[in-house]
Design goal:
Structural class: alpha+beta
Helix content: 55-70%
Number of helices: 9
Order of helices and strands: HHHHEEEEEEHHHHH
Largest sheet: 6 strands, antiparallel
Length: about 350
């Protein structure tokens, strides 16, 4: 009996999910195009650029709207089963609400894994390409000229301040290196007017070296120093191109590298956790869908309530990630709080009704 029921629920949900996903994607693309059409016209880009931009962006859009679409598909499916008295028939055959909830939770886990893989492989790649195309073709920005200011990083016993650097050119102006062996006392300060990054190391020009312990200062034309830190990595923290365009694996590697250099990576840690929590939100949506059906029987009211809860989730997700990125909340709590709160509330409702 359960196998037949599972196949039926699976087949019906795929129908609703596919229909809603196609509708949601079409509406999203239309609204986004209307919002950007003036920019496309002003930039005088061709139709090919516009189509390429949305081709790159489509995987990301699907990943973004999937949780909301999944909730609506569950609600519509179960709402129609209520209207057709199918749920009543199942209950008369000892099929409880908890049984249906368990199916949708496991089913949602499969979709969550698919969403995570799809978003991290196709979504991030497409997002990076669409953002680059937007910056270069529409906004006419030369990304090779992106310049960062006032950067700090740590490497071993050295604390480094970069006044200005253009990573693509691997050159910068104004560098200060403070050497603090064993974190005891300042032993040396190296200042240079300009620097460049070469295969053999960082080449400092117009250098002045100060040794406080010896009360000495000396100048030299050039000096070579070695750093493992890659200045290109700082673009992910300071660039207009968001860190969300990085996959979990690349983002994790970047966090480790920047953490070792002493950089503030709260924003990146929050993004890393938010990628996982957003995929897990499909399980939350499954619980919410079953909980709503146990409380409300009117399908129209169910849809309205679903949209309200989707808005509540997205508002909580945006607020939480914003607080995490700004260091107000720990990244894990900031990213996972909306999932945990709504999942607990929905599970409590399902448990009470099942009893």
């Amino acid at each position: 009996m359960n196998k037949i029921l599972h196949r039926y629920l699976f087949r019906e949900n795929l129908y609703y999910l596919g229909m809603l996903l196609a509708s949601g994607l079409s509406i999203y693309l239309l609204i986004d195009f209307l919002d950007r059409v003036d920019d496309f016209i002003s930039a005088e880009v061709g139709l090919g650029v516009v189509l390429k931009y949305y081709l790159y962006k489509t995987p990301l859009i699907i990943s973004q709207i999937l949780p909301a679409v999944f909730l609506l598909s569950v609600v519509l499916q179960l709402g129609m089963m209520i209207r057709n008295r199918e749920l009543l028939s199942l209950k008369s055959n000892s099929i409880t609400t908890r049984t249906i909830a368990v199916f949708f939770v496991f089913y949602a886990f499969l979709w969550a894994g698919g969403q995570l893989f799809f978003s991290q492989y196709f979504g991030t790649t497409g997002m990076e390409k669409s953002e680059l195309l937007w910056e270069e073709e529409v906004r006419d920005k030369d990304l090779s000229e992106r310049t960062l200011h006032d950067l700090w990083f740590r490497e071993g016993d050295r604390f480094v301040h970069l006044e200005r650097v253009t990573p693509a050119r691997e050159r910068g102006r104004g560098i200060e290196i403070y050497e603090v062996p064993g974190s005891r006392s300042l032993s040396m300060i190296i200042r240079a007017r300009s620097f460049s990054v070469t295969d053999s190391g960082w080449r400092l020009e117009q250098v002045r070296i100060v040794e406080p312990g010896r009360f000495s200062t000396r100048a030299q034309e050039t000096k070579s120093v070695q750093f493992e830190t890659d200045i290109h990595d700082f673009l992910r923290v300071n660039s207009d191109i968001p860190p969300q365009s990085l996959s979990l694996f690349r983002l994790g590697n970047l966090i480790q590298k920047l953490s070792r250099s002493g950089s503030n990576v709260e924003r990146l840690r929050t993004v890393w956790h938010s990628k996982l929590s957003y995929a897990a939100s499909l399980v939350v949506m499954a619980l919410i869908g079953v909980a709503l059906v146990t409380l409300v029987g009117n399908i129209y009211f169910l849809v309205v309530l679903s949209l309200v809860l989707v808005f509540v989730y997205y508002a909580g997700f945006v607020l939480g990630t914003g607080l995490g990125e700004n260091g107000v909340l720990p990244p894990m709590i900031a990213a996972w709080a909306p999932d945990v709160f709504l999942a607990a509330a929905a599970a409590a409702v399902v448990g009470l009704k099942a009893d």
